[in-house]
Design a protein that fits this description.
- With 233 residues, the chain is α+β, with helices and mostly antiparallel strands.
- The chain is built from five helices and twelve strands.
- A hairpin with a 3-residue loop joins strand 9 and strand 10.
- The two termini are 19 Å apart.
- The chain is globular, with a radius of gyration of 18 Å.
- 17% of the residues lie in helices and 28% in strands.
- The protein has one domain (9-20, 37-231): Alpha-Beta Complex (Dipeptide-binding Protein, domain 1), CATH 3.90.76.
Length: 233
């Protein structure tokens, strides 16, 4: 059964060093049961992220927080196997050294615009500019839009690790609107518009980061690493 996420609002409280003052014994048992609708969830996080731009920053706090707003084409499941996310499916042609991504249709960014191949290519090229792993393992890769929902990655040399680089969440290949990337230029992205289950509502430095839930999402399955979300486009 598909269950909806319980909270419509998530607030990350940035406590910094105060986290160290909490007692290890002050814990409560969490009962399992049906997920309740609505309400607000407050989560304490120990550090202030330097940025929420997942392309350009390798900081763990950036990764942990930004993945609630942004998503890649593919991800890893609980068995560490690559599976589609914003891509409906993908196809590897080892002879031609290409990976073809077939995009999900009807996926909307937080601003209401539909995700297309133009956004994907702009995002992947920007990710290449920043990601050391992409530069090491996918150097020379070129992206081609066959149509609005098909993107081909032309690799210089295909290896079995390539799909894991596409799916890696350390400094991940978040898909953003092409316009956002163009506006950012060589700077950090400050228009935090993604396709993820939560949209940034307010970020007050060293105090909190406030998200609101995007209603077209529901939890479809979980992995050992994080939630995987399904969309109602």
């Amino acid at each position: 059964m598909v269950k909806k996420v319980g909270s419509s609002v998530v607030t990350l409280m940035l406590f910094g060093l105060l986290m160290g003052c909490a007692s290890d014994t002050d814990t409560e048992e969490v009962s399992e049961g049906a997920i309740e609708e609505g309400g607000e969830l407050n989560v304490a996080y120990g550090v202030q992220p330097p940025s929420l731009d997942p392309h350009s920053v390798t900081d763990v706090s950036t990764r942990d927080i930004s993945q609630h707003m942004f998503e890649p084409l593919v991800t890893l499941n609980s068995s560490l196997e690559v599976e589609p996310m914003l891509a409906e499916s993908y196809e590897v042609n080892e002879d031609e050294e290409t990976v073809t991504f077939y995009l999900r249709e009807g996926i909307q960014f937080h601003n209401g615009d539909e995700m297309t191949a133009r956004d994907v290519i702009a995002s992947m090229e920007r990710w290449h500019d920043y990601s050391s792993q992409a530069q090491e393992y996918l150097d020379g890769t070129e992206y081609e839009a066959i149509d609005d929902y098909t993107v081909v990655a032309h690799l210089e040399e295909y290896t079995t690790i390539d799909m894991f680089i596409f799916a890696d969440m350390t400094q991940f290949a978040a898909i953003m609107p092409e316009e956002v990337i163009t506006n950012a230029g060589t700077n950090l992205v400050d228009e935090l518009i993604g396709t993820g289950p939560f949209q940034l509502e307010e970020w007050r430095q060293d105090q909190f980061i406030h998200f609101k839930k995007i209603r077209r999402f529901s939890i479809s399955r979980r992995t050992s690493r994080r939630f995987i979300w399904s969309k109602r486009a």
